[in-house]
Amino acid sequence: MGIVPDPRTISANSVLPAVRRPFELFTADGLRLVGEAALPVDREPRATIVCVHPLPTHGGMMDSHLFRKAAWRLPALADIAVVRFNLRGTESAAGASEGEFDEAEGEGFDLTAAVEWTLGSELPAPWLVGWSFGTDVVLKHGLIPGLPGAILLSPPLRWSRASDLQAWTVDGRRVVALVPELDDFLPPDAAARAFAPLRQVELIPAEGAKHLWVGESWVRWVLGSIVAVVAPDVPVPLPTLWQGPMERWNDLAGASTSTSTTS
After folding, report:
1. Beta-carbon neighbour count of residue 59 at 10 Å?
2. Is the confidence at residue 34, as pLDDT, over 60?
3. Is the pLDDT of residue 251 over 60?
4. β-bridge mates for residue 82, sequence order
5. CB-based contacts of 230, cutoff 8 Å, min separation 6
6. d(Cα 173, Cα 27) in Å, to the nearest integer?
7. Are 249 and 261 within 8 A, CB to CB?
8. Element of type H or E holding 134
């Protein structure tokens, strides 16, 4: 993998420049978790997203494709810091987090540790972004002081309950849910009924999309939708061309740091 001539189309394996900081989290129940923050190279971030990944028992991890592409693109394209971490019992290229899967209960300690790290690092306006299982963790445990709100990608509402949704209603923070039309678990009509206890939720259907948001067009749509919420002053849709250093990720070869800054 080498530096690509300018300009080039941003594609599925494009890695744009960022400051990439590996970190460790320590939960209140004594586990060590691994994570990474990706920050703009030469300026302060205007907003932050804390990513909570899909079901680890079915391959979900901090490198699940939407979150990995968010970390590859959003620091450069939108000045957004992207914080990712492996929930308990989850392993990725970044390493393994201790513990075992706990059906969205113990994962509340993991989320709290990630938010505390983010706030302690003075990263601005940290929004929670949950995907699939991660949305249940966010809904059950995400009412933490200092957070503007939450974005839910493909929420199945498998482990969260009406009481969790009602708690968000009472709190009043903004909640935006991106719901695929062809979702296997909770398509838009069913989502509208299931989310009734959360009065301020903004349900945004995605015609033709599926639960995993596979395909570059859907990646761009989801990332643009996230930016529109957390950094509304950034124009969307996001650029599809990049004028500057860019790498191509190769899952067999691993990552290169030739155009990234690590500290």
Report:
1. 10
2. yes
3. yes
4. 38, 49
5. 47, 48, 49, 80, 125, 127, 148, 151
6. 25
7. no
8. helix 133-141
Q: Give me Rg for the CA atoms of the chain.
A: 17
The structure tokens listed for 182 are 């062809």
pLDDT at 253: 61
SS3 category, 239: coil
Length of the chain: 263
The confidence score (pLDDT) of residue 250 equals 84
The strand order across the sheet containing 80-85 reads 201-206, 174-180, 149-153, 126-131, 47-52, 80-85, 32-39, 19-26, 261-262
The mean of the pLDDT values for the chain is 94
Joined together, the tokens standing for residue 174 give: 């903004």
255 pLDDT more than 80: no
Helix (H/G/I), strand (E/B), else coil: 69: helix
Q: How confident is the model at residue 252, as a pLDDT? A: 67
The CATH classification number of 8-262 equals 3.40.50.1820
